[in-house]
Amino acid sequence: MFRSWKADVINMSTVPEVNLAREKKMHYAAIAMSTDYDCWREGEESVTWETIVTTMKKNAANVIKLFLEVIPKIAVYEDVCIK
């Protein structure tokens, strides 16, 4: 199905969470970090568990850096804009 849509990225991890957040009028943001592409790239070497673990460790480090940079900015935004 996704190939027929010519999709580049498939994200299967934000539903039903995003729908429930919307229903509760909550802000919701997702951070997606790819681990592999072999499910749709024909001719690519099959991914190994070791490759996925290595990529997940890099992704985790990137997410921590992202949070450390973004969370203080959210606090400043809320202090300036919401009060």
Explain what this protein looks like in three dimensions.
With 83 residues, the protein is mainly alpha-helical. It has one domain (17-81). It is 48% helix and 0% strand. The longest helix has 33 residues, at 49-81. It starts with 16 loop residues before the first helix and ends with a helix.
Number of DSSP strand runs:
0
What is the succession of H and E elements?
A: HH
| Main sheet properties | none
Per DSSP, the total helix count is 2
Report the span from N to C terminus: 47 Å
Helix % is 40-55%
Classification by helices and strands: mainly alpha
Q: So what's the oligomer here?
A: single chain
In terms of DSSP E residues, the strand content is: under 5%
Shape: flat
Total tally of structural domains: 1
Radius of gyration from CA coordinates: 17 Å
Poorly predicted residue ranges: none
Topology:
Elements: H1 17-23, H2 49-81
Summarize this structure briefly.
The protein has 83 residues and is mainly α.
Key terms:
83 residues; mainly alpha; 2 helices; flat
